[in-house]
Write a structure and sequence with these properties.
By secondary structure, this protein is an alpha+beta fold. It is built from 4 helices and 6 strands; from the N terminus they run H-H-E-E-E-H-E-E-E-H. The termini are far apart. Helix 1 packs antiparallel against helix 2. About 40% of the residues lie in helices and about 25% in strands. The protein has a single domain, classed as Beta-Lactamase, CATH 3.30.450. The protein has a 6-stranded antiparallel sheet with strand order 3-2-1-6-5-4.
Length: about 150
């Protein structure tokens, strides 16, 4: 089994075996963090109206538990309806720093029945830590988690 397939299977198990939605999301984030060391902080934000609310994460606590649509990398992803892959966050004018040491970030939208319901956000202290392979993996994870996230709305 490939590393990617192992990760996806662990995420599927977390959804199938953990009944409480928030606990299942946290277990899924734990599966990602354990298998991908460069996911130094990884979490799920749920879209409620024009705000993203942090539901589950693995990594250092952040004060950014609610992010307005259009602000930072997370809010920009929703506003543009497109995933965001940022090689170096220091190049952004609209960046919201969860940690001063973060250098790269990826945000992958979670869709359910044609609507954005949330997103997966991952941060790393290294420049250029994320690539198209990470986006492909997190897109598959987002497909698995879509119904769980939608159930929180």
């Amino acid at each position: 089994m490939s590393h990617r397939d192992d990760t996806l299977e662990a995420v599927r198990r977390s959804v199938a075996e953990v009944a409480a939605p928030r606990a299942a999301l946290r277990a899924a984030m734990q599966a990602l963090a354990e298998r991908h060391a460069h996911y130094e902080w990884v979490g799920i934000y749920v879209l409620r109206g024009d705000e993203l609310d942090l539901e589950a994460f693995v990594g250092q606590a952040t004060e950014h538990v609610a992010i307005p649509v259009g602000k930072g990398v997370c809010g920009t992803a929703v506003a543009r309806r497109a995933n965001q892959l940022v090689t170096d966050v220091r190049d952004l004018d609209n960046y919201i720093a969860c940690s001063e040491s973060v250098r790269s970030e990826i945000v992958v939208l979670i869709w359910h029945q044609g609507e954005i319901v949330g997103q997966i956000d991952a941060d790393c202290d290294a420049v250029g830590a994320f690539d198209a392979g990470d986006e492909a993996l997190l897109s598959r994870v987002a497909e698995i988690l879509g119904p769980v996230v939608a159930g929180l709305l």
